[in-house]
Design goal:
With about 375 residues, this protein is of the alpha/beta class. It has helices at about 35-45, 50-55, 70-75, 95-105, 155-165, 175, 185-200, 205-215, 215-225, 240-260, 275-290, 295-305, 310-315, 320, 330-335, 340-350, 365-385; strands at about 10-20, 25-30, 55-60, 80-85, 110, 125-130, 150, 170. Helix 5 (about 155-165) links the parallel strand 7 (about 150) and strand 8 (about 170).
């Protein structure tokens, strides 16, 4: 890993992009405007970033193509990198030529916003990005794409953007949109919470099996998970006792925490809160490990990150959800009030655009970056296997 200069931290703001099918497809990274070239070299100078987010694309919104010298482009693989330039900037002849050169080298290039009146953008710019914070965008050509709608704030705006022909979306809508299975009676999730309570008191395997047998949806998800590529098991797992043995209680507890966010029907759409919860859990676990936390402390850190979205999932106050789990006081303080070391770190992970507070939490720049990479990688894996 290339050492990072704390004086240049944070290198990037970031945001994940999802398809209309609620699957992550890309990661938007916004380099520092004052040091675009340095930021991009630090980000892409080693294979760490692209390896961590594979197979997702990396989208780079830039004010200009000026910093994209041949030497810099040599570390930006065209098959993984997408450039986004303001349409108004591309009205410049020099910028338009630069965009055409990048497209000719195999990069995908998006024009952000509408072209200025009387200006025709280069023919290579057939896909676009639109800020949808204030209003739904105008329809786009279905012949090209994918087109990106960003700052999508809620379910209504998402539906408008999808109807207008956009296929990629980012914004706060996963945090505000009713979940795909909101009409479900919640029985599976109540049983999951009951299973977690059983694990917390070290219940016998027989008790865990009996609870699993009561819920077909939960049973399906657990067996599908343990037979997935994530575990690389040589034999097919067909019973709950096998699944518990293969996973182990520690891993079973971890995956049950994430299965709370899984789709309730096998044919239902994925839940975008799932990778977000997985990312928070994995990053908090990585931060705990970097600071010398033992295995139990790391497990607790993961759980706090994974549970931090339960109030949005259930549309219920957090106090009413976690009361039965007998969590330690400092875990409750972290989840309910973002207090204590874990609470401060959770608040940092949540505030993707305000990570300058890392120094107050005693987190060095390189540690923060490594924890982000681990969080992203784990979340992508979870999203593909649950």
């Amino acid at each position: 890993m290339l050492p990072l200069d704390a004086a240049r931290f944070p290198l990037v703001d970031h945001e994940f992009v999802a398809s209309a099918q609620n699957e992550w497809v890309a990661l938007i990274l916004r380099p520092q405007r004052a040091a675009v070239a340095d930021s991009l070299r630090a980000l892409f100078g080693t294979p760490d970033l692209l390896a961590a987010i594979a197979p997702l694309d990396c989208m780079l919104p830039l004010d200009s193509a000026e910093a994209l010298t041949p030497s810099l482009c040599s570390i930006l693989p065209p098959n993984r990198v997408v450039f986004i330039f303001p349409a108004a900037v591309l009205a410049s002849e020099a910028e338009a030529r630069a965009a055409e050169r990048l497209a000719g080298e195999g990069y995908r290039v998006l024009a952000d916003g509408a072209a200025p009146e009387g200006v025709k953008l280069p023919s290579c710019l057939r896909t676009g990005a639109r800020d949808c914070a204030q209003a739904a965008p105008a329809p786009v050509s279905p012949l090209f794409g994918p087109h990106l709608a960003y700052n999508v704030g809620d379910a209504a705006r998402f539906a408008e953007c999808e109807a207008a022909g956009y296929e990629w979306f980012c914004g706060a809508y996963p945090m505000t949109t009713p979940q795909p299975d909101s009409g479900h009676d919640g029985t599976s999730r109540r049983r999951l919470l009951a299973l977690l309570a059983l694990l917390a008191r070290d219940a016998e395997t027989r008790e865990l099996e009996q609870m699993l047998k009561l819920d077909l949806a939960l049973s399906f998800h657990l067996l599908k998970l343990v037979n997935s590529a994530a575990f690389s098991v040589d034999i097919e797992i067909v019973s709950f006792s096998q699944a518990i043995h293969v996973l182990g209680r520690r891993q079973l507890q971890r995956w049950l925490q994430l299965l709370l966010y899984a789709r309730q029907r096998a044919d239902g759409p994925p839940n975008l809160l799932l990778p977000l919860a997985a990312m928070r859990g994995a990053q908090l676990e990585a931060l705990c490990r970097e600071h010398g936390g033992d295995r139990d402390q790391q497990d607790l850190a993961f759980m706090i990150g994974a549970f931090s979205l339960l109030d949005r999932l259930f549309d219920t106050p957090m106090e009413d959800i976690i009361g039965a789990l007998r969590l330690p006081k400092h875990a409750l303080s972290a989840l309910l009030r973002r207090e204590g070391q874990l609470g401060e770190q959770l608040a940092l992970v949540e505030s993707r655009a305000d990570v300058d507070r890392h120094e107050q939490a005693g987190i060095a720049a390189d540690i923060w970056w490594r924890s982000q990479l681990q969080g992203w990688q784990w979340a992508i894996q979870v999203g593909r296997n649950v």
